[in-house]
Design brief:
This protein is of the alpha/beta class. It has twelve helices and 19 strands. The strands form three sheets. Strands 3, 5, 6, 10, 11, 18 and 19 form a seven-stranded mixed β-sheet that branches. A six-stranded mixed β-sheet has the order 8-7-2-1-4-9, covered by helices on one side. Bound molecules: zinc ion (2 copies). The site of one zinc ion has 6 residues, from loops. One zinc ion (ZN) binds next to loops.
Length: 366
Amino acid sequence: MKIRAAVMTAAKAPLEVADVELDPPRRDEVLVRIEASGICRSDLSYIDGKWPAPLPIVLGHEGAGVVEAVGEGVDPRRVGEPVVLTFSPACGQCRLCLEGRANLCLDAAHGLDSGLLRDGTTRLSRGGERVHHLAYVSSFASHAVVPANGALPIPAGIDPALSCLLGCGVTTGVMSVTRRANVRPGESVAIFACGGVGLSAVLGARLVSAYPVIVVDPLAEKRELALTLGATHALDPSDGDPAEQVRAIVPGGVDVAFEALGRPEVAEQAFRSVRDGGVTVLIGQPPMGVKAGFDVYDLTQFEHTILGSNLGGAVPALHVPQLARLVLADRLELAPLVTHRLPLAAINEAVAITASGEAGRVVVIP
Ligand SMILES: [Zn+2]
Ligand SMILES: [Zn+2]
């Protein structure tokens, strides 16, 4: 079938919105009509050339939609099911899946690098030329063929412009707090940077009754938004060393600090704002090769822990539907995160708004 998709043909160049061929789903695959796709900073890392991508490729890894057709071996009753797509459809058999770390599934990681589906081919092509998938998702499109277990069923009745965020940013932010760092009620947290992921971490901190919930961001509007979502204190880094400002609120430092930007100097600030024996969680994705510096003495003498966070350590098939139920029950408020909705035809404008760093989440509607 012919679909509309935003195709990346070269790094540092605009995406081309074009007609693309999409083959029908094969065994253990489903065809999904995309209803909304969030733009994540990782998409920008491919567009900027910071991360390598097999070209040409259809980007987008934060999609929601409805199952339109199923391949061999998939329950035909899934047609019509609302779904969120995941870039980590767990194989269930690799070492990391067996450890309960399906977000790091080795098989899914292979798809991320190759741009191919599990059988080593693509369903996407243009003029006879192979077009690659991004991480089993490729949601900057009207339709996608994905592994059946990468289309996660969610309850009906959620605005797809909100549910799509569960594919990456919201799950990453919320579960970095609730699962990766396992923050307990009454523990103090500081969240550095209030983009989509940082604001989602604020939502996670509210879910588990962390206190205080301190955010650090240079933009006044983002600090305001964080306060409406559950932050209790908002700091402007231009008012002085952010770590010292955090320590003025929580003497000795917070229990857990989160870095949600991907900048080494901000990671170092987060580290310095944590108490002895505390935890720093690094969520923001820098370009490959970036290094940060930490005082090793703090790690050894004071047992300071640094955790990396990929999708908040979530098991997508378990936690995405769980978070979706919280959204439906008005316990997880996502609407304020979405500051822009644009049509797929305006994808380059949507990318530029995301790159400006001034938006919350920008969602593309095919
Ligand atoms: Zn992402
Ligand atoms: Zn696996």
